[in-house]
Write a structure and sequence with these properties.
Oligomer: single chain
CATH architecture: 2-Layer Sandwich
Shape: globular
Helix content: 40-55%
Structural class: alpha+beta
């Protein structure tokens, strides 16, 4: 599935800006957890974004994801303040856990045995 150049540009813009928002809000909203935006995938009409996140320095990753989803409207509002001039509409955000790092670490541990 190839995406247009516009989708790729918007995707990287959102990835950068969301990373800044998570870095800034982590202490207040997410107990200082380190949250990394690994991938942002845009819908063809740019109205919807799937945001994949990696978590560090947190015990319960599922609870943290639930917390992030609970703050979705605030995150989207903060994003809108930054990208509102560049985008006609601020896309709906859907957050997912990117567990590829956990998967790689697990494989690494298995190979060590």
């Amino acid at each position: 599935m190839s995406s247009s150049i516009r989708q790729q540009k918007v995707s990287s813009l959102l990835q950068k800006e969301l990373a800044i928002i998570f870095q800034r809000e982590s202490k207040n909203l997410f107990n200082g957890s380190l949250i990394t935006v690994t991938v942002v995938r845009m819908s063809p009409d740019l109205s919807f974004a799937k945001v994949y996140l990696s978590f560090f320095m947190t015990k319960d990753k599922d609870a943290l994801l639930k917390e992030i989803k609970a703050h979705n409207s605030k995150i989207r509002y903060d994003l809108g303040k930054v990208v509102g001039k560049q985008l006609r509409i601020v896309p709906e955000l859907q957050f997912y856990r990117d567990d590829s790092i956990d998967y790689a670490q697990n494989i690494n541990e298995l190979l060590k045995k």
